[in-house]
Specification:
The protein is α+β, with helices and mostly antiparallel strands and about 425 residues long. The protein has helices at about 5-10, 20-25, 150, 170-175, 180-185, 185-190, 200-205, 285-295, 320-325, 335-345, 365-380, and strands spanning about 25-30, 45-50, 50-55, 65, 80-85, 85-90, 95, 100-105, 120-125, 125-130, 130-135, 160-165, 210-215, 220-230, 235-245, 245-250, 260-265, 270-280, 400-405. Strands 12, 13, 14, 15, 16, 17, 18 and 19 form an 8-stranded antiparallel sheet that branches. A hairpin with a 5-residue loop joins strand 3 (about 50-55) and strand 4. Helix 4 (about 170-175) packs across helix 10. The longest helix has 20 residues, at about 365-380.
């Protein structure tokens, strides 16, 4: 468990907090490309790490993320007109470019220099893999551009979604790196979900409910290995990489696409759950993409016109007690994504980790907390660069394999853990 002050440190991400400043040193998923589809399209509100921003694509296609509120009277620029190379406040016509510079105050005399003194906060955006990424730290510390494999394979090999999750980012991350719950919470999905079923690994998941966990540190985070019994003399490994601060990949199943998540804080009590699926050696099938759009796998159905899950806290996640009792749905909640979010949100907006009781299956969670606290503290106290900044550390894969019982972890998967263009993934 964590002491209350440790829990505060690791969960609070507003500007000026140790964890908030840590997050600001990484490229973070901000928007789907589809949200800003063309020059001069409607602007989009964006709240991340407690900051309220407005994002837009100007007439030349350049992306901008600036303070949401006009420097004149504080009007939200979401109401603004995106036109002719900038966004214009509809109240009095003040206009801003993608760098947050005021470029026109039509009510001022022609000789006025007021524009030159007006500067809204602004952050760089880049587009890669169908995602618009944001960097919210100091310019001199900007890291290399993202090189995650899902974002660098051809577009037809990858799919990305996002959904609102109404809880602190850390309890969502901790659910992601916890492999032991799969044999319970997601047991129905292993049998029926079109993006999970048919894997020999599912039999091992359901046949051994007491996985043994081993955790190895890497330069960028952790490798979390869950070992289960397979055939006599062999074991089934599922190895989950976690890269600082909020990226993880789920070990694959059969020839299904590989998937994983980012959890990006909106504020201290809400986050965006980003979910990707990709295949390293082939285009996604039409049936796979349709299943993802329909909410299968780690994706979900939405309230129309939003990224809010259709099954959410307000409707008790469409809980079905009859299907729970029959065993069809272990928790009575449909969809792997919503099974996770329903329980993570049930802990409250920010889980009180001083009251929990951890076991051997929580080794990955314990070590991830330690790495986060250490990195945030070192950055705050000494300015030490955070781990996981190098792009090469993003050339990582999750792994599922069967090996002899005597094979050591993580050497058993050393080559399989490294991504490379066209290289098949290790799966069972």
């Amino acid at each position: 468990m964590l002491k209350k002050e440790q829990n505060e440190l690791v969960t609070r991400t507003n500007k000026g907090t140790p964890m908030g400043e840590l997050f600001r040193r990484y490229w973070l998923p901000a928007l789907l490309s589809e949200e800003l589809p063309e020059p001069d399209c409607a602007p989009v509100r964006l709240q991340l790490l407690g900051e309220r921003l407005i994002t837009f694509r100007d007439s030349s296609g350049t992306l901008g993320a600036i303070d949401e509120f006009c420097a004149h009277r504080g009007v939200s620029l979401w109401f603004g007109r995106n036109e002719e190379g900038g966004i214009r406040c509809p109240y009095h016509g003040w206009k801003y470019d993608t760098q947050g510079r005021c470029i026109d105050i039509p009510s001022e005399p022609a000789e006025s220099k007021l524009c030159d003194r007006i500067q809204l906060s602004a952050y760089p955006l880049i587009e890669r893999g169908g995602v618009i990424w944001i960097y919210m730290g100091a310019a001199e510390y900007q890291p290399p551009l993202p090189e995650w494999e899902f974002a660098t394979v051809p577009a037809e090999q990858s799919f990305m979604s996002k959904r609102l999750q109404e809880c602190n980012w850390l309890q969502a991350l901790e659910g992601g790196i916890d492999s032991s719950h799969v044999s319970f919470l997601h047991s129905g999905g292993l049998k029926h979900d079109p993006l999970f079923k048919g894997s020999k690994g599912n039999e091992y998941n359901l046949g051994d409910l007491r996985p043994h966990f081993e955790v190895a540190e890497t330069d960028g985070g952790l490798l979390i290995g869950a070992r289960r019994k397979a055939e006599p003399g062999s074991v089934y490994w599922r190895i989950t990489p976690w890269v600082m601060p909020n990226f993880m990949m789920v070990p694959p199943r059969a020839d299904h696409p590989v998937h994983g998540h980012f959890w990006v804080p909106i504020d201290d009590e809400n986050c965006w759950a980003w979910s990707f699926d990709y295949h390293p050696t082939r285009a996604l099938k039409e049936s796979e993409v349709q299943a993802m759009k329909d909410g299968a796998g780690i994706h979900c159905k939405y309230v129309p016109g939003t990224y809010i899950p259709l099954a959410n806290k307000s409707n008790d996640y469409l809980m079905d007690r009859a299907r729970q009792k029959s065993g069809e749905l272990y928790s009575g909640v449909e969809s792997i994504a919503i099974q996770d979010s329903s329980l993570q949100e049930s802990m409250g907006p920010i889980q009180d980790r001083s009251k929990e009781t951890l076991t051997s299956t929580d080794r990955g969670i314990v070590q991830a907390r330690r790495r986060l606290i250490a990195a945030a503290t070192a950055l705050a106290e000494t300015g030490a660069p955070p781990p996981g900044m190098e792009a090469t550390l993003q050339h990582i894969r999750s792994v599922a394999l069967v090996s002899p019982e005597s094979a050591p972890f993580p050497a058993v998967a050393e080559d399989a853990l490294q991504s490379a263009p066209g290289k098949p993934h290790a799966t069972v």
